Amino acid sequence: MNLKDKIQELARQNESQILEVRRTIHQNPELSFEEFETQKFLKKKLKEIGIDAEPIGNTGLTACIEGKSSGKVVALRADMDALPILEETDIDFKSKNEGVMHACGHDVHSACLFGAASILQETKDQWNGTVKLIFQPGEEKFPGGASILIKEGILENPKPDAIIGQHVMPWIETGAFGFRKGLYMASADEIYISVKGKGGHAALPQFAIDPIVASAQIIIALQQVIGRKATPIIPSVLTIGKINSVGGATNIIPEEVKLEGTFRTMNEEWRAKAHEHIEKIVKLTAESLGAAATVEIKKGYPFLMNNDEVTEICQNAAMEYVGNEKVEQLDMYLAAEDFSYYSQEIPATFYRLGIKNDEKETGYGVHHPKFKVDEDALALGSGMMAWLAVSYLKK
What are the DSSP calls for 65-111, one per residue? Predict the structure, then answer.
């Protein structure tokens, strides 16, 4: 039996164990940088298959699986954290932690990496090199667990030649995978604006400086950052997602309004210029209406770049594993991922695992309280991670 067939067979044989890991993690979700029980559970499960994992980043885990002889090193990464969302699914193993939910598939990612580790451990006499396992905390929260793990040396001793990450995609059918070379996901910055005016009675606006009106003008003016300042060929988005007046009511003009939003793009030079435009537009618009404004822009994750060579190796390997018709080309995507930190340091590829099954109602997007996963994807995702790792090491 060749190695690919062996991996596929082991993925099928291990399916019940992979599902048990996923369901346990799903039922016991933990927020970013609080994944203590998840860490303990995964360390125990890895120990059961002969892998001693070490803690990193407080709540993360890492381990290496050595092949039959030395060679390249490839890292496989999965994230572990859940989101502050109240689960609204009908599954038997829904979250026991009220208000916390695995609504982005990180339970699937961790289970698939565990499944891949099990396969690689059982076949390590059939491939050369080293596979480094990374169970990463805190993907959903700045500064991002990836940045912390990098500072703590996750990309050293041994230094991976490449890193591979897998993420669920509810718009790709179960059984299919998505790949993209080059730019894939956006940088993400958080914008915090405070607009201060002069409060007063709503019926006497001539004695007040209305920060709500000023805020409305600022929101409209900020659209010029994308509409007239951005180069049209660089994907960008600027969204104000939250508005809150401090002390307002139906008959009160408040003293202050707070705005929060996000800016995303795929070019570092333009990113820096956009920050300048945002600050200037906010302050001058407020001043023109007699108000004053402050702007804080928290620089978040960088853009995610899929290395051409690594992606091509993995895409070709995926076609061997599931067939050409099951491998899709992804479009650029302006969501953000802290896997991007790895992609800025070493050759990387971040690909998608299809989980869509209309009969099982798994079409809800990530971060939705009714988000569900077609569990038929888990054995396939586990086998794929293992196969991509050995395929890269073989090249």
Answer: EE-SS---EEEEEEE---BS-------TT--SSTT-B--SSHHHHHH
User: In this prediction, what percent of the chain has a pLDDT beyond 90?
Assistant: 98
Q: For tokens 């698939």, what's the residue? A: 112
Q: Side-chain half-sphere of 260: how many Cα atoms within 13 Å?
A: 5
Share in percent of the chain as helix, strand, coil (round to 5):
40, 25, 35
Are 81 and 35 contacting, i.e. CB atoms less than 8 angstroms apart? yes
Angle among Cα 122, 156, 304 to the nearest 5 degrees reads: 90
pLDDT grade for 248, boundaries at 50, 70 and 90:
confident
The answer to whether 172 and 333 are in contact (CB under 8 A) is no
pLDDT digits (tens, 9 = 90+) for 217-243: 999 999 999 999 999 999 999 999 999
CA distances (Å), 14 to each of 42, 91, 234, 246, 378, in order? 16, 22, 44, 55, 10
Cα 82 to Cα 30: distance, rounded to the nearest angstrom: 5
- pLDDT tens-digit profile of 89-126? 999 999 999 999 999 999 999 999 999 999 999 999 99
Q: Which residues belong to the active site? A: 301, 375
Let me know the angle formed at the C-alpha of 24 by 119 and 38, rounded to the nearest 5 degrees. Answer: 85
- Copy the structure tokens of residue 373: 């996963």
**Cα distance between residue 10 and residue 214, in whole Å:** 62
Rounded CA separation 204/223 (Å): 31
Taking residues 253-261, what's their average pLDDT?
Answer: 98
DSSP 346: S
Cα distance between residue 114 and residue 43, in whole Å: 10
- Whether the Cβ atoms of residue 110 and residue 38 lie closer than 8 Å to each other: yes
Q: What is the pLDDT of residue 395?
A: 84
Domains, the chain:
3-184+302-394 (3.40.630.10), 189-299 (3.30.70.360)
Residue 240 in 3-state DSSP? Answer: strand
Residue 226: DSSP 8-state: I
